[in-house]
Structures are given as C-alpha cells and as structure tokens.
TrEMBL record:
SUPFAM superfamilies: NAD(P)-binding Rossmann-fold domains (SSF51735)
Listed name of the protein: Nucleoside-diphosphate-sugar epimerase
One Pfam family recorded for the sequence: Epimerase
Residues in NAD-dependent epimerase/dehydratase domain copies: 5-242
Amino acid sequence: MHRPILIIGACGQIGTELTMELRERYGNEKVIASDIREGGDTLMGSGPFELLDATNYAAIEDVVMHYEIDEIYLMAAMLSATAEKFPMRAWNLNMNSLFNVLNLAKESKISKIFWPSSIAVFGPNTPKENTPQNTIMEPSTVYGISKQSGERWCEYYFKKYGVDVRSVRYPGLISWKTMPGGGTTDYAVEIYHEALQKGQYECFLDKGTKLPMMYMDDAIRATIDLMESPSEKIKVRSSYNLASMSFTPEEIAESIQKHIPDFTISYAPDFRQQIADSWPSSIDDSAAKEQWRWEPKFNLDQTTLEMLNNLKK
Ligand SMILES: NC(=O)c1ccc[n+]([C@@H]2O[C@H](COP(=O)([O-])OP(=O)(O)OC[C@H]3O[C@@H](n4cnc5c(N)ncnc54)[C@H](O)[C@@H]3O)[C@@H](O)[C@H]2O)c1
C-alpha cells in the first residue's frame, strides 16, 4: 500500500494530469491535491483537495501532519514568460516553495520529494544541439535562474542532509486537458486549439525556432517512474535531462496540415522569442535512459494525432 502523497500546484497543466494518474495508481484517497485555486471538475471531484499556499511553511506542515503525507510533488511555480514580467514574485514563489518542502524532508516530516526543473536552466552559452547533462549553464531568464538555483539546493540537501529529492528538466509540454500556464513553449498547445477553431494560427515565436518538446503522457510516466525507482539508481540529484522530440513552428504546422490541409501559420515574434533563443534545440538524455530506463513513446505526428482527436471531442 502506498503512503499518502501531496501535490502542491495540482490544478496546473502538469499537476492536473499527474494527480489523476497517481490517483489511478494508488487510490483516490491516497493522493491529496492542493493549489491556491480550485481546479477542473474531474480533479476536484475525484479525491481530497486543500487550498494551500506553497510559500506558507506552517500551512503545508499542517496538511502533511493531517494526512500523514509521505511524498510531496511540488508543481507550483511561476513559469518563464510570466516570470519575466514579475521577477521578484517569481523568485519568491519558485525558491521559497522549494525550501519549504526541502526543509520538511530535512526534518523527517516527509521522506521523498519531486521537484521539476526545466530546459530553462541552460543559457545562450550552452551547446544548443544534443545539450549534455553536464555543461555550461548560464541561464539568462528569471525563471531559468530560479530553476538552476533550485537544482543546486536539491543536490545540496541530498548530500548534506540525505534528503531524497528527485527532479527532471522538462522540455515544453504538450497536453489537451489543461491549458499551459505562461511558458515560452505554450504556442505548441495553442496551435492545436486554433487549428481546430479558426484554421489558422499566429505564432509568437519565429520560423526556425527549434525547441525540445514532449507529449504530457511521456512526461507523467517519466515523473512517476523516477519517483518509483530505487534510490541507489538515482545518481543525479540536481536534475535529469529528459527528451523526446524537437521541432520548429513550421514543422508542427506541417504535422497539423496532414489532418487539416488548409491550416495556415503566420509569425509575429514577441518578447518570448528572446527567451526561446537562449534555450537548447535538442537534449541528450542518456543519463536518464541508462540509470532509470527512461524511454519516450510519442513523436510529433503521434502527438498531433492525440491532440486533434481529443480536442475534437
Ligand atoms: N509546462 C511546461 O511546459 C513545463 C516545462 C518545464 C518545467 N515545468 C515546471 O513544472 C511545474 C508545473 O508546471 P505547470 O506547467 O503545470 O505550471 P502551471 O502554471 O500550469 O501550474 C502551476 C500551478 O501552481 C499554482 N500556484 C501558483 N502559485 C501558487 C502558490 N503560491 N501556492 C500553491 N499553488 C500555486 C497555480 O495556481 C497553478 O495551478 C513548474 O515547476 C514548472 O516550472 C513546466
């Protein structure tokens, strides 16, 4: 029997699907969803929910004690595009929420943590193609700086205090159940919605901007596989590179045109172009593949099929 799990930031793009998958595997009552706002009907109706602010240590501790929580998945954060508009708020949320869960584990109140990092930890001086696990990291966004600092603190808490914290650097995630929350790769979700609704899409990134992306099912499976792996297999305690596909806006448009031949894309790059230009184009995830047998399942055309079929319903 699995001990209770708390998800913080459960109503967001990843949290919603992660909560439902964990409830499916371990039982609805074992997975406590929490957020500063209520989520969709399916999530809210399927199990326990707590209104919880990730920056409030005492409030998290109360929930942990009440439900005898053993593991926390911390999904609350301010994402890349929004963080550029509110740098200090982003730093406060992204760092303090992480310290709160790391300190709960340090004090033995929980035994395992999942905290997501991002390809935003890399920067303009990082090798762009097949970006290695260990390489130059000089993030130039507030979000990237917070994720890189977070990675350093995770490794520090593991080495110094034995905190069992696990992490992956998610690429841009594509899903149909919940809209994305203010990232630079949001276009790769919006484009499917608008292809079906309007038959055209104006992209906020320019032609030729190749970024690493992943279908949500792969990301959720990676997350839970990492959390279920024996501790001794997890050699990287900062965060694992994780990859499945990389594409440009014109390539995703071509993939959509196989199903909607009249679909057109135009380009109007905004401030998010600069963020995208500082990120890698493709990622070397061999450490994750070797150490805990990560393997992606969805390529671009399979993702397009899933997105269009489900959004049409
Ligand atoms: N979605 C992606 O493409 C992507 C890529 C790389 C990394 N990540 C990381 O994965 C994690 C989850 O991302 P997401 O896309 O689901 O984000 P999201 O913005 O969709 O969801 C974040 C959730 O956190 C909640 N939240 C905000 N402030 C809070 C607070 N103070 N207390 C409690 N909850 C709060 C929001 O209400 C929201 O439901 C983040 O750490 C993000 O940086 C996401």
